[in-house]
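Input record (one chain):
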Amino acid sequence: MIRTSHVGSFPLEYSEENIERIVRDLYDIGIDVPPYPQMRSFIDIYLEPLVKAGILTKRHNHYFIDIDEAKYSKLPHFKIVEAESTINYINRLGLKFKALRAPVTGVFTLASRIYVEKDPSIGLRATLLPHLDIMRDLLMKYVREFIKYLLDLGFNVIFIDEPILGVIVGRKRILYGLSENDIIEIIDSVLRNFSVEKGIHVCGRISDKLFRILVQVSNLKYMNFEFYDTPKNLDVIEIEILESYDKFIAPGIASSRKLVIEDIDAMVKILNEVFRRARRRIDLVSADCGFGELRSFSRNSMESYRVSIMKLRNIVRAVDIFRRSIGVS
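The corresponding structure, as predicted from the sequence alone:
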């Protein structure tokens, strides 16, 4: 079985009406494993509760932390309205999906948006990324609590979103004093003891080094990379390593950066190329990333949303064609 999915975000303003619209549309076009729709920043959803609890402060859309105080902080109460509303609409409308995906912003990406220094212009060196102890003691536990919460709601496919890893891990070096073991340990610890399907999403260019690190995370099964806008990512796939660590590629086959509707044949071509390199280790096909950025390409958010849905509809069609071509139902 090769299922279709979506990373998470949509180019609509947050509202209950839009949550229901997206859930209905994802069902109508045949997405197998939909996420709760993210219409707010995937950073804000996870960091705003820390602001309300007084653990972080927010100034000019930047988040700041006092490290000394953070060591003694208690985790706050929180909820994700989009996630709760998604479950409510699915139940009320009687919709049947194969599974439900929970996008969860990861420890490293959250750390990259929390500043220790007062001047954010210093860049990532001024964030929590060089402070492994705080990432372990605060953010790792915090992200685990979100996962528990989402599982209790009824989600059963967890995807950790870690776009910053493509920046941190280059071909030869890992930045900010982090090591391969640090990355493996934190992701593994975040996902440990959750008996559901688990994956990671990293957009942008993936280095060979990052691929080899992620396959060693024992609690990960799926690796969601972009292949439409970054076809060079195909070169990191090594079937022997995938088989050795029992990992699957969740390929992105449509652009998340262009307000165009991709040709189905082009999507099928990418799937065939991933198949050639990963054999049958393919599942949870999506676009390269979420569609939140598409709102900036049009003054009409409904037009951006229409394109988003057409992209996903074509992904469903492309996967159906591909399934038949390799004899998979």
